[in-house]
Amino acid sequence: MSDTIKYLLSEDQMPKDWYNLAADLPVPAPAVLHPGTMQPVGPDDLSPLFPMSLIMQEVSTERRIEIPEPVRQVFRQWRPSPLFRARALEKALGTPAKIYYKYEGVSPAGSHKPNTAIPQAFYNVEAGIRKLTTETGAGQWGSSLAFAGSLFGIEVQVFQVRVSYDQKPYRRALMETYGATCVPSPSPLTQAGRAILAQRPDHPGSLGIAISEAVELAAQRDDTKYALGSVLNHVLLHQTIIGEEAILQMAMAGDDPDVVIGCTGGGSNFAGIAFPFIGMQLRGGPNAKKRRIVAVEPAACPSLTRGQYAYDFGDTAHLTPLTKMHTLGSTFTPPGFHAGGLRYHGMAPMVSHVKELGLIEAVAYHQIGCFEAGVTFARAEGIVPAPESNHAVKGAIEEALRCKREGKAETILFNLSGHGHFDMMAYTDYFAGKLQDLTYDEGELAQALSGLPAVPA
């Protein structure tokens, strides 16, 4: 019996294309709407924010989209990323299940986010753009875009959610090391930020607010565009290199997952691991095995399990188009739990769509249980997960314990989307008993949902 721990692909086995789930969907995803006309947006509507190459990817229905060679050249620094068999965790849990994890923490920025930061910077430089603005929660995306900006010589300005800006100073230092400017959001630099600070000077911030600030600045200058780290189709597309590699590596292991798991905030790392497996199922043939695809989200910001499937703005100041997604309302401000990358009011439209089609499941867990799972994983496997990734770890452990109760030797695959080396204060708080299972305000949620835009049927 093989006792292999890690499955490694060579650089020449790295996928040359991204996979686009839109090509295989049985029902197309709802159109993105212009908030003024309520008509589907066209390329010209998006051009103030994105270069045309990314806009074309956003609306593409081609199954395969080529990864540019300059992007693949940068990827070779850490891709293909390893697939691990979690044999030590299996033993610690006493489960008959086989647990595998795809580890994205090997990237220079420590997470999956450079998978889209690198191509976004590349396409913007190709279009002659000199500056990118963006938002970030925990800082994984901000540091990844800062890294990409340093490689391609493009200026990066990051609006970081205030509560995370205060919680994670080392992530901020990493952005500055790569040459980016990082400011806490809401800030006095934008009209959106000033309006919110006028109402509440100590506002903890939200990803929706930070998006508003970044979009506002990008729309004012021709040499500046906006970059988003999750939610949009082209971002999810770029992340599918994760699942494409995992399919090859699971074949190397002579195995095939019964359950595929990812944490969900905006949806990018989940889509990265899950969409290629969903695509195989939809296309039929010998690889069309029915798999359970499980999205794990924070109970304090549960867009998939508590949100309403409706058209909503992607930001708080309502500067973005309307997308149909599972949403808690664009004015919803989640409590300041440590998984800052999962504190977004909405879920990626494509992830929301496949949830509505019944292709995925969703569960929500509180943060203390997720940190407990992360510590169990670290003590068995040696890798300290990011707080966001702890949700996927928790999901995998729950599935493995289910298999133990039921006596089933199922195969579980999850995406370990990043390491927690810049998040150790969260672990310090956990061990000191300072973490709380924060809950959102039901009244605020109801108010935010009551303000959803009216869209004609």
From TrEMBL:
Keyword Ligase part of the UniProt annotation: no
Cofactors (names): pyridoxal 5'-phosphate
Alphabetical keyword list: Amino-acid biosynthesis, Aromatic amino acid biosynthesis, Lyase, Pyridoxal phosphate, Tryptophan biosynthesis
Chemical reaction(s) catalysed: (1S,2R)-1-C-(indol-3-yl)glycerol 3-phosphate + L-serine = D-glyceraldehyde 3-phosphate + L-tryptophan + H2O
Enzyme Commission identifier(s): 4.2.1.20
Family the entry assigns: Belongs to the TrpB family.
Listed HAMAP family: Trp_synth_beta (MF_00133)
Quaternary structure, from the entry: Tetramer of two alpha and two beta chains.
Function (record text): The beta subunit is responsible for the synthesis of L-tryptophan from indole and L-serine.
Protein's recorded name: Tryptophan synthase beta chain
The organism's taxonomic lineage, starting at the top: Bacteria, Pseudomonadati, Pseudomonadota, Betaproteobacteria, Burkholderiales
